[in-house]
């Protein structure tokens, strides 16, 4: 723009100069014709000169602006290309991370310098390939560089994974101080407190999730409440307050089995055995869970009253007719070496559940104790035949799915390249276990 204005000024000056010459010519118009002619020539030359100047000025003004315009375009398109290159490298890196090609991702990232995104991807790649210490170092320096909560989270998760729980907690508190509504930080803090068994503090955090993450709240609440009450029962001993809290828990979550065991333990601690057994029986009726039968049997055996255990289970067997009641009764008979009775209970049970190998082994053991080895062997053979049906040669080391043939992709979890020979898969599983707890 400025160039154009300069050119216009020059043009105006030249026109003024031409007018001045014209004036000069008119003043001497009456002089000799030769002079007139000479003067006319001078004027013509001046006009030509001024026109030429004007043309040059206009031309260069246009040329300069066109050159500037194209240069700006070139720079812009170069920047555009660089931006596109960067975006495509970042996409490449994301793909590498998704495919777990961590060294490739790290190599691509070295060309991109530092930014929140680049640093974040680099830390993810380092974590992916197991360099947790280096990942933490990178996160620390990135946090110092960018002050982004992204790295605060990365540091906190790295600290939590490496068992530095207090540091992780400190980091989450920092994030929450800046942003009290940060759901992720609250959840991270909650998980750390859970690992520290700080149940009371977990319980304080929980109401926040009731509105922000109702599903999370629903699955966490009974467990946390149970642990907290269990901790209090162990520390303070049974008291009215704990007891009514336990009652509240079992009433609010009637399907939550640990709640009843807590209620029964609270009675046992107060030596109110009858009430504890009422809890077991009520709990069994409500949930149908086998653990209550086992608890009844265990309690009587521990207190040298096996006949009471038998009596309770027999009564229940009449009342409930559940297969698991007969199973526990058979198990109890076996344990008390009442082998005939054990056989009487276990035999029809196996006939109804022929594929249960555990039951088959128990019955076969009973039969050999009764000196009936042929029948015992027969049962083992049948049991082997059933085992052949569930037998598999290959096993997925990612999800544990078993398959009779090798497939390139696991039919259960749909991951590729995860099927190993079944008895080597076990070993691979152990090898794959990282020393860091996730
Ligand atoms: Zn699988």
Strand order of the largest sheet: 2-1-3
The biggest sheet amounts to: 3 strands, antiparallel
Assembly state: single chain
How much of the residues is beta strand, in percent?
A: under 5%
Can you tell me about this structure?
- The chain is mostly helical and 438 residues long.
- It has a three-stranded antiparallel beta sheet with strand order 2-1-3.
- A hairpin with a 5-residue loop joins strand 1 and strand 2.
- The protein is elongated, with a radius of gyration of 44 Å.
- The C terminus is likely disordered.
Labels describing this entry:
438 residues, mainly alpha, three-stranded antiparallel sheet, disordered C terminus, binds zinc ion
Task: Describe this structure in a few short sentences.
The protein has 438 residues and is mainly α. The chain contains 20 helices and 3 strands.
Blueprint of the fold:
Elements: H1 2-27, H2 33-98, H3 102-109, H4 116-128, H5 132-146, H6 149-161, H7 165-178, H8 183-195, H9 199-212, H10 214-236, H11 240-252, H12 257-269, H13 273-287, H14 291-302, H15 306-320, H16 323-335, H17 339-352, H18 357-369, H19 373-390, E1 394-396, E2 402-403, E3 419-421, H20 422-432
Antiparallel strand pairs: 1-2, 1-3
Helix pairs in contact: 1-2, 2-3, 2-4, 3-4, 4-5, 5-6, 6-7, 7-8, 8-9, 9-10, 10-11, 10-12, 11-12, 12-13, 13-14, 14-15, 15-16, 16-17, 17-18, 18-19
The structure holds zinc ion.
């Amino acid at each position: 723009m400025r160039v154009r204005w300069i050119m216009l000024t020059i043009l105006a000056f030249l026109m003024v100069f031409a007018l001045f010459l014209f004036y000069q010519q008119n003043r001497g118009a009456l002089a000799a014709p030769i002079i007139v002619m000479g003067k006319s020539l001078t004027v013509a030359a001046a006009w030509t000169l001024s026109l030429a100047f004007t043309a040059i000025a206009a031309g260069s003004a246009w040329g300069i602006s066109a050159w500037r315009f194209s240069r700006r375009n070139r720079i812009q398109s170069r920047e555009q290309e660089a931006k596109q290159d960067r975006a495509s490298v970042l996409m490449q890196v994301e793909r590498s991370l998704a495919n777990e090609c961590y060294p490739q991702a790290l190599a691509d990232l070295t060309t991109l310098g530092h930014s929140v995104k680049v640093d974040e991807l680099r830390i993810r790649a380092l974590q992916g390939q197991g360099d947790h210490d280096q990942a933490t170092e990178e996160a620390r320096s990135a946090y110092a560089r960018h002050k982004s909560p992204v790295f605060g989270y990365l540091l906190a998760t790295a600290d939590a994974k490496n068992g530095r729980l207090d540091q992780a907690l400190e980091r989450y508190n920092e994030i929450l101080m800046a942003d009290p509504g940060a759901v992720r930080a609250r959840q991270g803090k909650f998980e750390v407190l859970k690992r520290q068994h700080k149940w009371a503090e977990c319980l304080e955090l929980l109401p926040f999730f009731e509105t922000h993450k109702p599903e999370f709240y629903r699955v966490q609440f009974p467990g946390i409440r149970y642990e907290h009450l269990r901790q209090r029962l162990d520390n303070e001993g049974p008291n009215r307050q704990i007891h009514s809290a336990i009652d509240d828990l079992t009433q609010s979550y009637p399907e939550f089995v640990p709640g009843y065991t807590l209620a029964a333990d609270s009675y046992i601690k107060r030596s109110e055995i009858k009430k504890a057994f009422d809890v077991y029986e009520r709990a069994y009726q409500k949930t149908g869970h086998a653990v209550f039968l086992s608890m009844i049997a265990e309690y009587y055996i521990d207190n040298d009253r096996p006949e009471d255990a038998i009596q309770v289970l027999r009564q229940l067997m009449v009342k409930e007719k559940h297969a698991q009641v007969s199973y526990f009764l058979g198990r109890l008979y076996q344990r008390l070496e009442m082998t005939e009775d054990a056989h009487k209970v276990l035999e029809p049970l196996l006939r109804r559940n022929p594929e249960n190998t555990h039951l088959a082994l128990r019955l076969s053991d009973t039969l050999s104790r009764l000196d009936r080895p042929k029948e015992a062997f027969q049962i083992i053979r049948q049991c082997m035949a059933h085992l052949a049906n569930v037998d598999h040669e290959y096993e997925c080391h990612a999800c544990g799915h078993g398959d009779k043939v090798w497939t390139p992709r696991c039919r259960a979890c749909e991951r590729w390249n995860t099927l190993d020979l079944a008895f080597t898969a076990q070993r691979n599983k152990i090898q794959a276990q990282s020393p860091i707890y996730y």
